[in-house]
Amino acid sequence: MSYPELALHVAGEWLTRASGGERAVVNPADASLLAMLPLAGTAELQAAAESAQRGFGAWRARSALERCTILRAATDLMRERADAIARILTLEQGKPLAEALREVTLSADIIDFQAEEARRLYGRTVPPRVPGILSQTVLRQPVGPAAAFTAWNFPFNLPARKIGSALAAGCSVVVKPAEETPGSCIALVRCLLDAGVPPDALNLVCGEPAQVSSFLIGHPAIRHVSFTGSAAVGKQLGELCARGVKRFTPELGGHAPVIVCEDADFDFSLKNSVVAKYRNAGQICASPIRFYVHRRHYAAWSKSFAEAASALRLGPGLDAQTQMGPLSHVRRIDAMEQLVADALDQGARLLCGGHRLARPGYFFEATVFADVPRGCSLARTEPFGPIATVEPFDTLDEAIARANDSLYGLGAYAFTRDLNTAHRLGEELEAGMVGINHFGISQPEMPFGGWKESGHGHEMGAEGLLHYTEIKTITVGRAG
Asked: How many CB atoms lie within 10 A of CB 46?
């Protein structure tokens, strides 16, 4: 299947032209044009918000069982179309095809879980404390139309998390995928509509990001906003939401530490760390970045880590031999070069990589730094790319303190074979998600979210559904 024609879905219609103009969508593996994306203007955004308001009334009236049945039918379609969708994803985002396929199938699992969990969206009954009260009930009801803003690094998974939870809870959605990677989300929306989600309950718009976000957040129909992206943009959207007293669930950046303890399995920790660090070319909010290795193993571990990173095969995601694809757009190349230059200027030691590849596309070498000064940008800024830092430590107290010395608190990881150490790390690392001896912290059944400037609230798990609901207390007394 070739890359599809791009369109917006507004008020039940697919629009291949819109009043906001259009922009190019390119293949990051060779910078070639994939398609032109229509951009929504004020007219389309207004129509989408009004459509979501109508769709909310119709969709919330469906029973939880009926919503679940429709969403499960949609995930069946996702799995049937997974190969074609994965190819679209790789063409526009760049990751290896196997990673793209895994993203599609895992997204279907996420929506399945949310759909089933909505059938168990329990309230509670509270015994009355005064005579004459027959019942006191606490219910959860859908909050209303939701606006979902998603990033380009997981262009199928991130919309699936937000749309799946919102629809399962009975909310309608206006989703704005990243303009760099719209095709994946369009394929997701088609699966949901083909399965029976009412057209007004699911709108898709793209456009100039600041215009789209300010319009939708300011529109009275929108009652909940979910955003995945940078901390800087998340703060701006949070301010807009506060003006309208609207619910806001931001999933922002990270700067994840990895502690390799003295008793850790050397080969196991090394192999898993290389795979996790350079998956999706490091363009993952919970990607491991800062590796703290016990001094006993530091020299050998850092040398082996750099050698393994240098040996990764870079290439187009559609090539079966590729282990790491390109960065998703040219802006990431610029950002990597700036971080590398600053680190070198500050005296950091480059162990491998550090350069853009001299070939078409947005390829950047897997890069490892040692001796990174605390004051350089790389020590405090999320690289969101294939750059890692390695530092030694002597005591666990020291490692934990350095791991926690960050404005971010999304993911944190450690390797140890001591059960007491594992529990201590789980307790003391300041992050919303901690993985001990593995990096698989993102699972459909588990809540995904961070501390500090990594955001607040959660996606996935039972907790992810709750953000799309309001609590209502109902008391019924005797009529006379």
From this structure: 17
